[in-house]
Amino acid sequence: MPKPLKNDPDRDLVLACQKNRGIGFQGAFRELYEQYKDRVYNVSYRITGNATDALDSSQETFGIIFRKIAEFRFESRFSSWVYRIAVNASIDLKRRSRSKGLASLDSIRGAVSDDGSRLDFRDDRTELPQATASRHELETEIQDAIMRLSPKMQRITVLRYAEALSYEQIAETLCISLGTVKSRLSRAHAALDRELSPVIDRHQIR
Questions:
Q1: Given Cys at both, which of 41, 47, 110, 158 links 90, Cβ 3.0 to 4.6 Å?
Q2: Which domains are assigned to the chain?
């Protein structure tokens, strides 16, 4: 069994939730909710592809956290546990849902690329209307391609580029080896490259 982590930044709040079931619990859980609500919604949105399902998945995620936080033993970072629940809840909901809405890639602005650089799109205010329209269309096609990935590769892609998690954090979140993370991400890159190379060429802004 893994040794409990001693340096989790959320440790005090989690322990406060575990030791209190009254006002103390409510205050500590509210702090955790405020800290993670945007990140949970973001992951849910990228996986489910639409706002309605993302809200449902977020609600389910925090419901699970509320019910099971007393069982958390710091065998991973609390943030990894939260991401794991959010990813699984989103994948499960997506499997149940027939919604085919597409999400934007606004959150990928500033995400970390493989070489450690930041992925940066230009500000709309500095672009011509035609360029802005073309870029938004490209982002939609990129998200469409991500939505067509297998659930395993989609999880990896969303956590890496929407949430900018390191390989080590992804491995901890999904309870898989570092080698598996690299292998799945490599396959995801290859799949996206096959689909998106002609798309990117078509939308190239000169």
A1: 47
A2: 1-97 (1.10.1740.10), 130-206 (1.10.10.10)
